[in-house]
Amino acid sequence: MTRLARLGGFIGLWILLSAVVGCSPRAGIPPPRAHAYDVPYPRAEADAIYADLARKLGAGDTTVDFTVLRLAYADSSSYRPSIQCGDRQAMFRGLHEQRYRDALEAADATLGSCPLDLDAHLAAAVSSGALGAPDRAGYHRRILDGLIQSILASGDGKSLKSAMTVIDVQEEYVAVNALGLQTRSQGLLRQGDRFFDEVETLDPRTNTKGVLYFNLDRPMRWANRQLGK
Prior knowledge:
Strand content: 5-15%
Number of strands: 4
Largest sheet: 4 strands, mixed
Number of domains: 1
Radius of gyration: 17 Å
Structural class: alpha+beta
Oligomer: single chain
Order of helices and strands: HHHHHHHHEHEEEH
Helix content: 40-55%
Strand order of the largest sheet: 1-4-3-2
């Protein structure tokens, strides 16, 4: 099964629920910010930075630098790809069947192992709102917005040179949807020791096809470490 097929439920969930939590498609990409996207943090430094920012975020501070948070997390010993985290089917099923307590429990379990998991924050926002907890719903919405803006600010995605930097394949689908586009196909590219995903898109408003590029260096470094490379 392709990655596109495996993540089909996630994509559908975003399309179905983005309006519910207020994450409407972006009209454009925000200006780039000055971050060293291509330079990994040394492991000890990444661990320290991520621990500090995660502590602040867990205490309710949603003004943290989400780009530093994402990049440090991906370079830290705490990193895990989202596909390894939690019972995603239980979370999606709970939302679709409006069993919000079950969905929230599954989302919390997912965030316990992958704290920056986008669909888990989305599920937590929707479930919390449905269960009459607007403050908690707003907390997860602010995290979602910070993470999405961080992805979009990393590049315009129009070329390999200006590829958006992602720390998980999941982020590609979120970025495409946030721009009001649909994912049509996906292919892995390699240039030397650099890895990219080429994603063919469709704008449903104009029926226009396009291509976006995403830098996959951080997820691939993690995968290679697991293989002992």
